[in-house]
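Troubleshooting log. The previous run stalled partway through. Resubmitting the same four chains, unchanged.
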Amino acid sequence: MNYSKQREIILRILKENPIHPTADTLYDLVRDELPNVSLATVYRNLNQLAELGMIRKICALDDKVHFDHNLESHYHFICIKCKKVYDVPYDVAPNITEALREHTGLDALAADVLFKGICNHCKH
Amino acid sequence: MNYSKQREIILRILKENPIHPTADTLYDLVRDELPNVSLATVYRNLNQLAELGMIRKICALDDKVHFDHNLESHYHFICIKCKKVYDVPYDVAPNITEALREHTGLDALAADVLFKGICNHCKH
DNA sequence: ATAAAAATGATAATGATTACTATTGTTGAA
DNA sequence: TTCAACAATAGTAATCATTATCATTTTTAT
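Second attempt completed without errors. Output:
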């Protein structure tokens, strides 16, 4: 994978933002710095970075894919009103992959936990 | 919601099948009994039934939505090779909604857990 | 400096899902 | 039972997120 300014900026902006943006949202953010960037470039780079394990994809609702730069084990909470995705600490459900193996014999490569509800901001 | 033969058959076939089918797969199954059914009807009914809480949607990969007639608390395992979705018992990660509240103060209306890996069938 | 490989921007294509519309089916009351 | 109001359907067009294509530009190793 060769260097590209586009990829560097995409990754930096994703890292700066705790909002777990979609490709579309990230496209808008990147365009502030790089007005001629193509939406295809954003998708291409996000998929490449995810493929390399440098970022993660989050399948949050039934529609758009969100992206997460945080590689540590953790989970997510999506607000069904504002659609924001929040991080949830690993401690909430630790060792579930081990529990899966004990209970079912299945080996999981990944465990995605997604809570759905209304965030504190939208409650008020 | 008025009765319709289409909805009855769609729901019955979903209940008969443990495979967590997509709308597309279900469309094929329903057409065996009701050759003139429309794909739009399948989508419309699945969404209505999900809206009413009579079935559940599973956001499994980044692409298609799967449907689940099992309303009991349980989780899922998707095989990254054959794409089949298997049920995982609730015991593997019990009380995670309570754990979420204790750790974060957030109230979750739902908790979706999706393990990814290779199923025993595809391993051999 | 340069040639090969990789990445880009622009846009067309894809594929899942939803919207639209004319028609048909269901329902509850007269 | 009949009938009007309304819900649901089949068929198909439209939408929208994502991916593919391709000519051009950038990166990189020699």
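Takeaways: The CA atoms of residues 4 and 91 of chain A lie 37 Å apart. The mean pLDDT of chain A is 95.
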